[in-house]
Design goal:
The structure is a homodimer. By secondary structure, chain A is of the alpha/beta class. Chain A has 2 domains: 117 residues, Rossmann fold (3-Layer(aba) Sandwich), CATH 3.40.50; 95 residues, Winged helix-like DNA-binding domain superfamily/Winged helix DNA-binding domain (Arc Repressor Mutant, subunit A, Orthogonal Bundle). Helices cover 40% and strands 22% of the residues of chain A. Chain A contains 8 helices and 12 strands. In chain A, the strands form 3 sheets. A 5-stranded parallel sheet of chain A has the order 2-1-3-4-5, sandwiched between helices. In chain A, helix 6 crosses helix 8. Chain A is elongated and about 75 Å long. Chains A and B meet through helix 4, helix 5 and helix 6 of A and helix 4 and helix 5 of B. The structure holds a DNA duplex.
DNA sequence: GCAATCTTTATAAAATCTTTATAATCAGCC
DNA sequence: GGCTGATTATAAAGATTTTATAAAGATTGC
């Protein structure tokens, strides 16, 4: 958390409400009532998200948004009392990322704030255990920050173990998922590749911390 | 335009309506009624945006979304008849980028589609990695400042790799995007053209730094 | 027809997987 | 505890698959 959010809203009650709401989520909030002041601040200090009320006193919110978008691509959530379709379309086409109409639910607004912070900071949904990280989007594994090259089979096994973290997977389950149903009588395949994975991922392959053996049953990835 | 949009919606009337609506904007639309089929398609061929109806017959839309997000970060707009706050919050926290409730205005939906396409495909004026630069507007590639001539096929492959920087693209994905769906059994096409690209772009084509092979899987453009 | 490009093909090289042998470890039993 | 048979770990050789590359043939557009 601790993302910085700029609120541009000229109704004092609403400004105060938004500030309080966002601070409950540990966000740092900068509130403004006037468009010019907000722009000046943004030039000085970038923020992670902007909440914009269209009904400003000193200038038109749509114009403000259009002007902002000429140089800044920070996500903007528009908050407005205007329910008309054409207002929404105009704001979105002016570069808004989302449009919320008053009255709105606090929980929904916070969820939309989270969503917009998330997709702008494309932090991958990565699995990690210890100093090992697996990023299924990039199909990439790293150890202590350094990329580790895994073969297709090794990667498939690790992904399978991660998707069932802390559970025991039998040889047959691994063989079926990775090699296919007809390979259930080749447990040695799993052993050889598991040894390879340990060589690449464990600090002490002979005394594995993550890739544990369950004798007589199968293997388990310990996430702790 | 010409972005590809996947629609997952099990009501035939709504599916048809969405398809028609999106096609008026020159989008390429792939419609599905079942979650499994849609996932299978996405693995084969990435899209630019996903419209998801939460009320699927064969599985829970929220589960589908969570599963998708474990490996895919394509923008998702949820369309739902459920107006409850907790449904919205859950969907947004599951990784949805936007949430639209039925009944919705066509113009607003299209505006939200535009907004989500725009913000997730930042209008990079030029991609670059190392001393290589690709300008999609001029359709021009240069290396260390000097223009490099690429054939149409070479350029298409490079652009595709750049749009999915650092991700692995399978042979099938490359073949489908560049040659078409009926070429998925010709991986040698990709190999030959990839070798050409390396000759033109890499300092040491035999030991590529950018255009990496992932044996058994596909190719990856390494930007980092 | 010519030049550029794409497709096809053949061969060499590289990477990975499978197989095998041996050593280590484990579980049950006396 | 120590023995025994079964299971597991590991390295390394062998086999197979996958990939790189050049070059010849086919196609396309001007």
């Amino acid at each position: 958390m601790a993302e910085t959010i700029l609120v541009l809203e000229d109704d004092p009650a609403m400004q105060s409400f938004l500030g309080t709401l966002l601070k409950t989520q540990q966000h740092q909030v900068h509130s403004f009532s006037e468009g010019i002041a907000a722009l000046q601040h943004l030039v000085q200090q970038p923020v992670d998200l902007i909440l914009l009320d269209l009904g400003l006193a000193d200038m038109d919110g749509q114009l403000w948004l259009a002007q902002l978008r000429s140089w800044c691509d920070t996500p903007v959530i528009v908050i407005s009392a205007r329910h008309r379709e054409q207002d929404k379309v105009q704001a979105l086409d002016n570069g808004a990322n989302d449009y919320v109409t008053k009255p709105f639910s606090a929980a929904e607004l916070l969820a939309r704030v989270r969503a917009n912070l998330r997709h702008n900071t494309p932090q991958q949904q990565a699995f990690s255990f210890g100093n090992i990280r697996l990023d299924p989007v990039l199909r990439q594994v790293s150890r202590a920050g350094a990329e580790v090259h895994l073969t297709k089979t090794e990667y498939d096994i690790l992904l399978l173990l991660m998707r069932h973290a802390d559970k025991v997977l039998t040889h047959n389950q691994i063989l079926t998922q990775v090699w296919g149903k007809t390979y259930t009588d080749r447990p040695e395949y799993v052993r050889v590749h598991m040894a390879q994975l340990r060589q690449k991922l464990e600090d002490t392959p002979a005394a594995p911390v993550y890739l544990k053996t369950e004798p007589g049953v199968g293997y388990r990835l310990k996430m702790t």
